[in-house]
Amino acid sequence: MRISATTIALTVDDVPASSGFLRGHFGFREVAAADGFAKLIHEDAPEVVFLRRGTEVLPQEHRDRRAGGVILAFTVGDVPAEHERLTAAGVAITMPLRVDPWGERLFQVTDPNGVVIQLVDWVTPAD
């Protein structure tokens, strides 16, 4: 099997709000949109699709669910610089910058629909 693209599809209440958040703060481009749908691309990340909750394309048992328990994680080159940039832009940091014992340096923000976005890089863990 050859996979030609990877798409993450998230169900939200306000598609334009989540699309605007990724475009405005993370450099994604919206390449397709319709009522209740937006497809975004970034040269360094999987495609992201936002679907409005209740959309008929979703399986019946999933139509009323919101994206929950999901973290959209992006590995970046300089987490402290991204933290500073997003803070300066007024984005609320919903999990403070930290370094885990295994060397993962990360922080999280949350989009207007509650989608958690985590930025991470790797450092040498302190012993």
UniProtKB/TrEMBL annotation:
Q: Which Gene3D superfamilies match?
A: 2,3-Dihydroxybiphenyl 1,2-Dioxygenase, domain 1
PROSITE patterns given for it?
VOC
Q: Where is the VOC domain?
A: 4-122
Report the protein name in the record. Answer: Glyoxalase
Q: Which organism is it from?
A: Spongiactinospora rosea
**Source taxonomy:** Bacteria, Bacillati, Actinomycetota, Actinomycetes, Streptosporangiales
